[in-house]
Amino acid sequence: LLCLRANDSTFNLSFRYANNAIKTSKYNIFTFLPLNLFEQFKRLANAYFLFLLILQLIPQISSLSWITTGFALIVVLSITAVKDAIDDINRHKCDGQVNNRKVDVLMDGQLKNKKWMNVQVGNIVKLENNEFVTADLLLLSSSEPLNLVYVETAELDGETNLKVKQALTVTGELGDNIEALAAFNGEVRCEPPNNRLDKFKGTLTLNGERYALNNDKVLLRGCTLRNTEWCFGLVIFGGPDTKLMQNSGKSIFKRTSIDHLTNILVLCIFGFLASMCSILTIGNAIWETNEGSVFTMFLPREPGIDAPLSSFLIFWSYVIVLNTVIPSSLYVSVEFIRLGNSFFIDWDRKMYYPKNDTPAQARTTTLSEELGQIKYIFSDKTGTLTQNIMTFNKCSINGKAYRDLYDFSGQRVEITERTERVDFSWNNLADPKFSFHDHSLVEMVRSGNPETQEFFRLLSLCHTVMPEEKKEGELNYQAQSPDEGALVTAARNFGFVFLSRTPETITVVEMGKQVIYELLAILDFNNMRKRMSVIVRSPEGKLTLYCKGADTMIFERLHPSCNKLMEVTTNHLNEYAGDGLRTLALAYKDLNEDYMIDWKQRHHEASVAMEGREEKLDELYEEIEKDMMLLGATAVEDKLQDGVPETIEQLAKADIKIWVLTGDKQETAENIGYSCNMLREEMKDVFVVSANTAEGVKEELHEPKIITNNKSGHVLCHIFRNARRKMCPEAAEEPTVIKSRVGLFWLKKTETVQDEKVDGDYGLIINGHSLAFALEKNLRLELLRTACMCQTVICCRVTPLQKAQVVQLVKKYKQAVTLAIGDGANDVSMIKVAHIGVGISGQEGMQAVLSSDYSFAQFRYLQRLLLVHGRWSYIRMCKFLGYFFYKNFTFTLVQFWYAFFCGFSAQTVYEDWFITFYNMVYTALPVLGMCLFDQDVNDRWSLYHPQLYAPGQKNQYFNKKAFVSYLIHGCYCSLIIFFIPWASMNDAVRNDGKDIVSHPSFAFLLQTCLLIVVHTQLSLDTYYWTAVNHSFVWLSTIGYFAISVTMYSNGMFYVFPSSFPLFGAARNTLNQPNVWLTIFLTFLLCILPVVAFRFIFIQLCPTINDKVRYKMRTEELTAPAPRRLLRRRSTRSGYAFSHSQGYGDLVTSRKFLIKRPLKMTALFTQTDSSIFQNQPQHYRTIAEEPQSP
Amino acid sequence: MVKQESESANRPDNTAFTQQRLPAWQPILSAGIVIPGFVLIGLAFIGIGVALLVTSRSIQVLELDYTGDSNGSPCSSCSQSDIANCKCSLNFTLTTLFQGPVFFYYGLSNYFQNYRRYGASKDDNQLYGDLSSFTSPSSSCSPYNYDSSKKPIVPCGSIANSMFNDTFTLTRTVSGTTNNVTLDGKGIAWWTDYNIKYRNPSVTPLKNAFNGTVKPINWAKPAYELDASDRSNNGFVNQDFLVWMRRAALPNFRKLYRRIDASGDYQKGLPAGNYTIDITYNYPVRAFNGAKKIVFSNVSWMGGSNEFLGIAYLVIGSLCVVMSVVMLIVYAKFKFPDEE
Predict the structure, then answer these.
(1) Spatial separation of the C-alpha atoms in residues A327 and A332, rounded to whole Å
(2) Per the UniProt record, which residue ranges are transmembrane (chain B) (predicted)?
């Protein structure tokens, strides 16, 4: 247990608590070099090259100058070191900035302005409004009544609403009395530092009395003080001990599947290297016994080294010579390419959102090629697919539909931002943000059409909205569900302004005239009733019941005289439902006074009944809500973000499966499913699994049985089986699971559930409660199978943890690359779990963005991120790896062949400098150029043909098979590069009769052939020749000759006589026609087969890429016309209402109508009253409990 | 709307580079390029191949093995004895003129000048005339850096030590009289080797530079006395030494020994007649199954005789033509870019 005493530094110092300075940096000036080097050598590749370097320093073994490895290693190490240094400097800056923030600290009886880092545990600090909380504080007192403090915790948990903290009364009395605070000597005992944000346990001992402390009394570092003038706090945890810092633990380091594959391949290459060396060692042993032992007259053995030992040493010598199969620059280059591709994402203007000035951001630079392999997308709904804005979109009043615009020829007109809006200037209370386009409705309402007026009167009366007047004349509605807000706002703009309410009255301004209605009863909403009503008395004394609710509910309770109207309205409703709008039907009923008195009496009795109150009330409601007159219907749009349906359609075409995971209610989620075209009317079936109530499951199974938790698992299993049987009758009962082993040394076991073929499209909707069971061990494969057979999967009312579990499930059993996209703190878990996490940025909460790998402002940018950037990155990375392995195999295997002609003596066929420069200088730039700029088809075509994305998902461009083909290709080229010059130079002489086959000139010839061949191969692989590519390729080729001629020039020889063994080789060979003829022959023999093979391959089985590339050549693509999604009329109910039970009581209960300060929102989320429990899903909270039956 | 100017502060630059819209050439392996390309390359190759073959056929080459492996061959006695300067001679007859300029090579086979330790066994600084390396040769020359009495060996190392030391004289017998054919040993090494890479210390007389050093163990004469007839052809710039030091890349190689001096009767080359090569047989090769030979050859624009290149070009050229026909058939059958 931790113990500290206020204002007693000597006491507190004895415990050596951490002070408030934070340090996230890793190094300082002196420790940088040793620590950083140590870190770097912990990497296997670097350690391996260090080992090689050491081998090369042993003279008996060294077959190559140490420079060859040393140079590369130094370059690689220094690039990484520079990057680390920059990162660390930034961290230092950040730390410094935070540590140097100022805060008032109470010291020696007065407030002193001190730096954060000098704040000690036990100090008392004073915070002012909008200041960051310095450390984890025990709240002592505040400026607000009841010692309340409002804080925003966005930085901690991403929630942007205000939270309330309250100090103990005993400390609150201290107020801002400096003397009293200075004399405060309370002793705090609490739990040691930990990372639980929602728990705090401790006691405060003051004057011999003990007070319990909980989370409510603690201000955490990372919060911001809001709406509070000042407060005093006692520092409990400082710096690294604070909960914020304890939480900022290591983030999971994500690696791409290509990374894993590369690691495996590098291991394979190690094996390959070892076997090559072993073969050569055996060769050397044979040579030493047969030839070497008799050649000793010219080449005596070194003392103490006999044939076996010599062979042993040769093994290591060849490890050095052939080490270039594993190029040290591989990892650096890979990182570099990914970095480049990440920059292109940052720079893309088409993923920049001008409205809030947010560019796309690649926050992780190491994952870019994985973007090209996504198979599953898990998306949040609110804030990701939708804008979280409800708009009153359409309505049908008395059988006439409003909002659809028709031009003169009767064609429906597309409504855009430019469409002329209805002018509401006649109404000085209108909300300026509201827009509507159908002028006829305004005309109707202004002309005094009774039905229209009644329609809007209903909307202005029948709701639970709270009005709020912040400033004079500025009316704001506090709607607990956004649907209601939209409806009441619509009524307001059409001249029925809801002004204020008391428990008994509702004040409305009707067409400029203030009217006060007496509120007699609110018949509250609940999930079974799916409707709500109010009973009001107008000033004229007319009693009316106004009801709004689900069409299915209302239509059952209409007066028979409405039948005809009902038919017309139903048609309209079907249209709205087809458009994915949320619909409500509206009805009214005039009541007579006597009946009302009687009913009121019974209502009162029922509402105080001790037993069966709910049932009795329901009965009463049922009784009065009948024979109603239909007024019409409303359609509210849960505004999707721009381009969401199109994006989803595109992604679906790219064979990416999209699952929506949302905390919302089933109806609203389903509605969004339809409006963004994930669920479609033409789908064969949409399975709904919502076992949150026993009744639900019963209904589904026609089994009159109460289902306990245990059994509901059973039931689910049935549901899944039935669903599967329907989708695919011949599907096996048991899932086909393919077990295999992957990973380093094949240690990792994997199980993959196979995809199954299904005829037609199906959808699956499952709610959180069912999901909880379905995710259990025995059921999860059932869930996965069924879900994967469906086109669309929507999980509603899921908790953050379940989101993560779903992602995990797919990740584990599908072995597919997953992407999670979300905007809120409740998406963080799935963002972290998925292979790639995407955060929607530019909104208030930053938590999702902070834990994401990529962030941008709009969901629609996802298609560009995946279909353009992801695809390009993947192709580039694959091309890079393929080419890189190819070029190093070719390079190294030539040495292998030469071994057979030099007595297996580890004589290198190339010059040391060439080996040093080959990867780092001669071939570095062209391959980087290709892998940064290459595009097989441009972005527009990529988006036009989403099918181009499929090869990435199937991992087609770089896999083990491809690797073997690169190996074989490298082998072939190395054979040509060695044996053609060998054959043609065997007895060759120069045309002046002098020798030409000396070792230096042979080396030079091979180097030149090699370089020309690999550069030409690169040129064949490059699809997109920018000026940069041209200059890189040509500069590297010319550069090679220039460097060769310079290195072997007289001048260089005079300066370093023994450094350049190839001195003179360039000019003595390059002037020989037979040398050039040999180079030409070698080059064409390496290249022509590739050209022929590719050509024939394209002819025989052209890939989609080939087709699009040819198509692109012949047609210049004009931007594809925006496709309008075809909507059909729907026969399902479009009802969806994010309202919840309990608000009716609330608005009629007096306690909530007391004028409260403007921090109402804060109270809404903070209180423990019923209102919090019934928080609509719209205000998302982290812990979402499934509704109990 | 106060921050109007900073409104789009984060908007990425609209450049062709950042938007990945750099103008680019996007070549495609289309039938229109590939098939004619193959035909053209094929035809060109066949043309070059024919030219190479004709040229190569016109070059005269005469190879004479004198290892003395088999009993009865002229040098078999020498090859079996260890006597220094063992003499033997080879006779050959030219029926036609051996077109000049004629080059006289010696060839060795199964000889690993390209063995790593062999190749490293020299001291570049010493050969560059650095006197400090005379007194302390590089350890890379080991075991030929010091002799048994710890005196430095100059030039040190295995390469120098194993220098080829057979000598040849060529005589022509015309109607009973024997004439010496003059052999020209000047400028047979690379210009760069002679003028830059190898250099004698600037001490006169040259002999003094070698004070305190010993000659390589296998050598009969010290470096400064390699050519008694020409004082400038001594030390490290001795042409034979330079030729030997230019290490062969492959185990079978030939090195230039002399040129036939194109004067008098030999202006046009070696005329028809009977010739004798008198060999001073010193170099032992039979121990490691090596072979020695003498080669006379003339050259063309493309160097010495090289059948391989010509044949290779012909074969590849024909294959290209065949390939182009195959591709044409495939293309005619599938017509990829056209069918859609």
Answers:
(1) 10
(2) 28-54, 311-332
Per-residue 3-state assignment (H helix, E strand, C coil) for A1034-1102? HHHHHHHHHHHHHHCCHHHHHHCCCCCCCCCHHHHHCCCHHHHHHHHHHHHHHHHHHHHHHHHHHHHCC
Task: Provide the shortest C-alpha distance from residue B302 to chain A (in Å).
Answer: 5
Q: Which residues of A are catalytic?
A: 380
Q: Does B19 sit within 8 Å of A349, measured CB to CB?
A: yes
Q: Could you give the residue ranges of the DSSP H alpha helices within A448-540?
A: 450-461, 482-493
**Structural contact between residues B297 and B304, judged by C-beta atoms closer than 8 angstroms:** yes
CB-based contact A683:A761 (threshold 8 Å):
yes
Q: What is the pLDDT of residues B140-189, one digit of tens each?
A: 888 888 888 889 998 899 999 999 989 999 998 888 888 888 898 888 98
Select the residue from A284, A286, A293, A298 to test the B interface by mutation, using most B Cβ atoms within 10 A. Answer: A298
Give the burial class of A796: count Cβ atoms within 10 A of its Cβ; 0-12 exposed, 13-18 middle, 19 or more buried. buried
Spell out which residues of chain A touch residue B112, defining contact as CB-CB under 8 Å: 291, 295, 299, 902-903, 905
Query: Are the Cβ atoms of A1106 and B9 closer than 8 angstroms?
Result: no
Class of the A2-20+119-246 domain? mainly beta
Its CATH architecture, for the domain A391-637, is 3-Layer(aba) Sandwich (3.40)
User: What's the CA gap between A272 and B288, in Å, rounded?
Assistant: 33
Q: Which chain B residues are closer than 8 Å to A1095 by Cβ?
A: 29, 31, 34, 327
Please give the annotated binding residues of A for Mg(2+), written as ranges: 380, 382, 823, 827
B124 and A901 in contact by Cβ < 8 A?
no
A261: pLDDT confidence band, cut at 50, 70 and 90?
confident
CA A985, A988, A991: angle at the middle one, nearest 5? 130
pLDDT of residue A1030: 94
Which DSSP string corresponds to A1008-1020?
HHHHHHHHHHHHH
Instruction: Report which DSSP code applies to A1188.
Output: P
pLDDT in tens, A872-892: 999 999 999 999 999 999 999
Would you give the distance in Å from CA A599 to the centre of its chain? 55
**pLDDT over threshold 50, residue A33:** yes
Hey, is the C-beta of A291 within 8 angstroms of any chain B C-beta?
yes
Distance between CA atoms of A715 and B129, rounded to whole angstroms? 96
Decide if A994 and B256 are in contact by the 8 Å CB cutoff. yes
pLDDT digits (tens, 9 = 90+) for B220-267: 889 888 888 888 888 899 999 999 999 999 999 999 999 998 888 888
Domain ranges of chain B: 34-59+302-335, 68-96+109-252+273-290
A1011, pLDDT greater than 60: yes
> Which of B22, B249, B336 lies at the smallest CB-CB distance from A933?
B22
**Does pLDDT of A705 surpass 80?**
no
Distance between alpha carbon B58 and the CA centroid of its chain, in Å? 21
Domain parsing of chain A, residue ranges: 2-20+119-246, 23-102, 261-321, 330-342+879-1091, 361-385+639-865, 391-637
Nearest to A984 among B112, B308, B323 (CB): B308
- Tell me if A1024 and B26 make a contact (CB, 8 A cut-off): yes
CATH superfamily of A361-385+639-865: HAD superfamily/HAD-like (3.40.50.1000)
Output the DSSP codes for A558-597. Answer: B-GGGHHHHHHHHHHHHHHHHTT-EEEEEEEEEE-HHHHH
- Contacts with A1081 from chain B: Cβ below 8 Å: 309, 312-313, 316
Tokens of A1124: 């309008």
From the list B24, B103, B336, the residue facing A993 with the nearest CB is B103
Residue A375 carries which side chain, given as an amino acid letter? K
Q: What is the DSSP string of B239-273?
A: HHHHHHHS-BSSSSEEEEEEEE--SGGGTTEEPSE
